[in-house]
Amino acid sequence: MSNGEFILEMRGITKEFPGVRALDQVTFQVRRGEIHALVGENGAGKSTLMKVLSGFYPHGTYSGDVVFDGAVQRYASIKDSEHAGIAIIYQELALQRYMTIAENIFLGNELCGSPGVIDWNQTYRRTGELLREVGLKLSPATRILDIGVGSQQLVEIAKALSKNARLLILDEPTAALTETESDKLLGILGELKQKGVTCVYISHRLGEVMRIADRITVLRDGRTVTTQDKKDMTEARMITHMVGRDLTQMYPRKEHTPGRTVLHVKNWTVRDPVTDDVKVDDVSFEIRQGEILGIAGLMGAGRTELVMSIFGAWGRRTKGSLTLDGRPLEIGSPHDAIRSGIGLLSEDRKRFGLVLGMDIKENSTLASLRRLSNLGVINKNEEILRSDRYVKELRTKTPTLEQRAGNLSGGNQQKVVIAKWLMTEPKVLFLDEPTRGIDVGAKVEIYNIMNDLVDRGVCVVMISSELPEVLGMSDRILVIHDGKVAGALPRGEANQEKVMHYATGNA
Amino acid sequence: MEITAKDASAQQPEGLGQILLNSIKHNTKQYTMLLALLVIWAIFAIWSDGYFLSNRNLSNLSLQTVTVAIAAIPMVLVIVAGHIDLSVGSVLGFLGAVAAMLMISPRTDFGATTAIAATLGVGLLVGAWHGFWIAYQKVPAFIVTLASQLAFRGLIIGLTGGQTQGLEMAPPSAAANFKLIGQGYVPTLAEGVQAGEFHDTSAFIIVFLILVYWLVSFRQRAARQKYGFTVLPMYAEFLKLLIVSGAILLFTKIWIWYLGIPWSVILVLVLAVIFSFIAGNTRFGRHLYAIGGNPDAARLSGINVARNTFWLFCVMGVMTAVCGIAYTSRLNAATTGAGVNMELDAIASAVIGGTSLMGGEGTIFGALIGALVMSSLDNGMSLQNLDVTWQYVVKGLVLLLAVWVDMLQRKK
Fold first, then answer.
1. Which of A249, A323, B57, B280 has the most CB atoms within 10 Å of its CB?
2. pTM of the full predicted structure?
3. ipTM of this complex > 0.90?
């Protein structure tokens, strides 16, 4: 073990896939005890680089050297890198939902008294210690499905700590978290840094990066663009490095003139189908033509439940009334909603938005097959024609329409889902976290699409946990707290402080 | 085995080699399966000094494949939708017995047509029963159909009184007509055509089918051109048609020069075409693939998951009835052991043919090849009087191998 300046040095890493050079002579150096942010657009090579580091791509499948603690490493598998003290926490959490926190933390590393027999007392005691370390006030016996995404993220960190990780890599840890949850997480990372844990932080949220990082490395198109101290960096400069061009207008907002009310939601109440808890409590609001309505609020405030239930995806556990274009509307299923002209882009596009095994064409026509078919027979030529039109219009990057959705990057996947909803020719389109896990360039494209939609007369409702996005794009903002409308702000009056004020329950 | 316009946008004109290469790349799975089947045939041909490939044996082989194929065709859709049907064997045995008893029993005394229609109706009811529990009561298909596997095996014993009910007990005209389905061949125009002689109507049918194939191909080509998509160059289109037609002739000679095309083979081919069309060109089919691929996304895309699932099992029920009828007709009797393990053969055929048990993926064409692989193994090993012990072991290992190869290809 050496005590050099760098805990990790990746030198001249090149990784090729058939036809693509994903990484091209990448250099990446992490100092001992620092928080080092790694930023870049989707497809820039961040995940590939981390997969090289973790041994997911074993030694020999890439060229260049991985030097950890002063010695060249030749990991054959993830197990090897874990053993060396490198822990990666992925975007998609890898926790067993039906197991407890303690079981999850020691999964694969069970604490055993006699060989093969789990020592539960020891397990719970250690878990308790680890949970205190990451600031989670939960019993080690809590099951994962009973806790929120923010807490799950912290459990993942506790799990990494249990393996004595010296280098912690977090891939988009706050993508699914609300502002407060993110704050808490960033705080914990700060504390871990005090205890000597080095951390690589991958994120699209540049504000967070500026807050927490000591140094920042920017990747673009598989190459290292720059590594700089935070004090020499600004958000704008990071964006310039990431996209290779100036993004002067991050939020391409247009002035809209709201028209007539299209959808009127009255006294809307939603209960949880299992626990019967009230998730949305007597909410009333209007959606007007020619505007983007932003819905802000903390995670768990009931925003997703609100729109999912309006869309008919919540079963019959709803009360209240809907009026569309002045006529009362009964929606019993998503099928009804789509026929009435309502679309919903879900926050979880892999689970609710796409059939990953199907190709672009099949995914984008999935909700509008009726329009494409005659007596139940699909006109496949028409299908190709229409889906191709949307691929071009939304600038989805793909070689063919036959590309499987699972092989696309996040931004392009989202465009396929958007195409699916546009094909249904909706009057009202709910977008639940439309830019989650999407790189900066694609985000702007999605904002532009939203503006186009409004110009075409579609009512756009956007839920977002990113405050700058809500403030930047919305004509009107509805803040939800604890299932109720805590405040409604026209664009002119809205600012970060006011929205947070309402979102945290201060009426 | 389709060479389609891969992209609506303009493409570079391609050479023949490139076209072929693309076709192989996009249909690796199908080509691999065909290759595997040919390898198996080659092995048996060498082993049997060529007898395996004789018209007589291959014609028999086609007859032996019929029942499994009829069960495997709808099974593909069931598995694609993320379900399974373990009841096929028992239910087809039961439905075959229903058909037989309707003709045999003096109380009903049905003719063949009425008995068949009634049996299809009962099949629909059995399917609806499964569909009700699976689609609307949300009981896993595995359990619902396992329950039926047990229950219907019992009902067969009840219906037949635990004895083999030969169709010779039925009125001769009904029995004779019914027998045609499983054992009959299309009739000839010329009198007294013997086995091994040219079978005129069969040849006409084949030529007619090839003409239909050409017609459909050119209509599709014209439609694509109307949409402005790139199509194969004319010479390549012709070459493809010629190759496929040649292949069809090569395979169908086994019937033209031996007793003619069996009615049951025509039945299977018609069903295969219909179900391929359902799978690839209808909303119902597309919905099934989406439901199997991601039920949540399917529901949120406005697909009525429960209703589609219900109808899927209704279709499965009717197809099981068809299968039961063909089975009983071939055996010329209803037995208590009819159809035992048939569901496993059907599932194995689908899986060998590339259907994923995870749902969302599978083709009818593949299942037919899978069924041919299974029955070729049976046929070839029986020809050599191989011990039954080893017949089972070999079939099991081939299934394992097929799925393993499929997994390897998927990884790439």
1. B57
2. 0.81
3. no
